[in-house]
């Protein structure tokens, strides 16, 4: 116990040094047990900053999901780089959808009609995942066509340069940077520059990485997004059979300033433009049974494996079940 307490003190001391360099106080891994607030935690809704006292909402953008905001220490940092990862290219829609949910919440809170959103990406990612559908953005996220800007660049380094320069423009409320994989140019140094531009401008930048592996970056928060099965549409008479409800995302915290893990299934309400957590049990099957048929009951008893016909003539070859398909060498060409 003594060793654990010393280790935590060392971690807190390092966090305070880092926060002093960045101009903010550090967050703690857990609230103090004695009820006394420590430096770096919100005290009566206030945080200490270099220029005095400021509200916690000035530092964080609440997602609206209470448990997620609590684990993140108040929400997503407003003036910072935030990573959103899609582990596979086929999950590009889920990762982009989560980014649009967060952008929509920020625009709703700002309530400034003149705000612009810049979506910049590489030619490769737009060819693979496609461009966001503008009429759908207006209907489901409240992002008007006239407030959305697109920029396409052939190389990831050019995408980063466009984002860094656009962060200087006051009319641009947020920037979504989308690219695929783990290009060399998107390293710790490049993301640190992008994070610093977000801090200087006081606006968030979302780094949307499709089919990418986690690697060290300057972003204080990394969210991993994947599609989740939707529930049935709710009506006054109950769930509507055969319908599709609100869009759902499976979100996992891959990195945060609090270093606390968390997994969520979030639903987006396009009318209220809010996110809500859904319990894992409240969902339907991804693939429904064939029409007019029911699932057969599980058969009780032992499961036997028979040798294939001619197994004795084939020699001493092992049974087929000992050679699964994923261990066979793939044919090249």
Summarize, please.
The protein is of the alpha/beta class. Helices cover 26% and strands 23% of the residues.
Please report the number of helical segments.
7
Note the overall shape.
globular
Main-sheet strand order equals 7-6-8-9-5-10-13-14-15
Contiguous uncertain segments of 5+ residues: 25-53, 282-286, 318-333
Structural class: alpha/beta
Q: Span between N and C termini?
A: 59 Å
What is the H/E order?
A: HEEEHEEHEHHEHEHEEEEEEE
Mean pLDDT: 78
Helix percent reads 25-40%
Assess the beta-strand content as a share of residues: 15-25%
Radius of gyration: 25 Å
**Total beta-strand segments:** 15
Largest sheet: 9 strands, mixed
Summary keywords:
single chain; 333 residues; alpha/beta; nine-stranded mixed beta sheet; two-stranded antiparallel sheet; disordered C terminus
How would you characterize this protein structure?
It is globular and about 60 Å long. A hairpin with a 2-residue loop joins strand 11 and strand 12. The C terminus is likely disordered. A nine-stranded mixed sheet has the order 7-6-8-9-5-10-13-14-15, with helices on both faces. Strands 1-2 form a two-stranded antiparallel sheet. The chain is α/β, with parallel strands linked by helices. The protein contains seven helices and 15 strands. 26% of the residues lie in helices and 23% in strands. The termini are far apart.
Task: Give the topology.
Blueprint (H helix, E strand, L loop, with lengths): L1 H21 L23 E4 L2 E4 L4 E2 L4 H6 L4 E2 L3 E6 L5 H19 L5 E7 H7 L4 H8 L6 E6 L2 H11 L5 E9 L7 H14 L3 E6 L10 E7 L5 E3 L2 E3 L7 E8 L7 E7 L4 E4 L56
Parallel strand pairs: 5-9, 5-10, 6-7, 6-8, 8-9
Antiparallel strand pairs: 1-2, 3-4, 10-13, 11-12, 13-14, 14-15
């Amino acid at each position: 116990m003594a060793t654990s307490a010393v280790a935590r003190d060392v971690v807190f001391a390092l966090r305070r040094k880092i926060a002093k360099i960045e101009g903010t106080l550090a967050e703690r891994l857990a609230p103090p047990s004695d009820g006394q607030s420590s430096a770096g935690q919100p005290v009566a809704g206030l945080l200490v900053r270099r220029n005095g006292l400021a509200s916690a909402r000035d530092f964080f953008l609440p997602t609206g999901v209470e448990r997620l905001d609590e684990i993140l220490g108040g929400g997503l940092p407003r003036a910072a780089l935030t990573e959103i990862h899609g582990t596979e290219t086929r999950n590009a829609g889920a990762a982009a959808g989560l980014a649009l949910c967060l952008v929509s919440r920020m625009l709703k809170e700002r309530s400034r009609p003149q705000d612009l959103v810049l979506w910049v990406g590489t030619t490769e990612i737009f060819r693979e995942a496609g461009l966001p559908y503008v009429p759908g953005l207006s209907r489901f996220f409240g992002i008007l066509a006239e407030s959305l800007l697109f920029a396409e660049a052939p190389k990831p380094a050019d995408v980063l340069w466009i984002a860094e320069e656009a962060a200087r423009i006051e009319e641009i409320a947020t920037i979504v940077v989308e690219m695929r994989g783990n290009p060399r140019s998107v390293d710790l140094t490049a993301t640190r520059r992008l994070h610093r531009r977000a801090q200087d401008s006081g606006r968030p930048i979302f780094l949307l990485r499709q089919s990418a592996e986690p690697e060290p970056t300057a972003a204080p928060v990394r969210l991993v997004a994947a599609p989740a099965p939707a529930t049935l549409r709710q009506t006054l008479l109950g769930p509507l059979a055969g319908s599709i409800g609100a869009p759902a995302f499976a979100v996992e915290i891959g990195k945060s300033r609090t270093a606390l893990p968390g997994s969520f299934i979030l639903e987006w309400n396009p009318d209220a433009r809010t996110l809500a957590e859904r319990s894992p049990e409240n969902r339907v099957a991804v693939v429904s049974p064939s029409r007019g048929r029911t699932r057969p009951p599980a058969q009780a008893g032992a499961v036997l494996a028979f040798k294939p016909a001619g197994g004795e003539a084939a020699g001493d070859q092992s049974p087929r079940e000992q050679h699964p398909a994923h261990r066979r060498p793939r044919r090249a060409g």
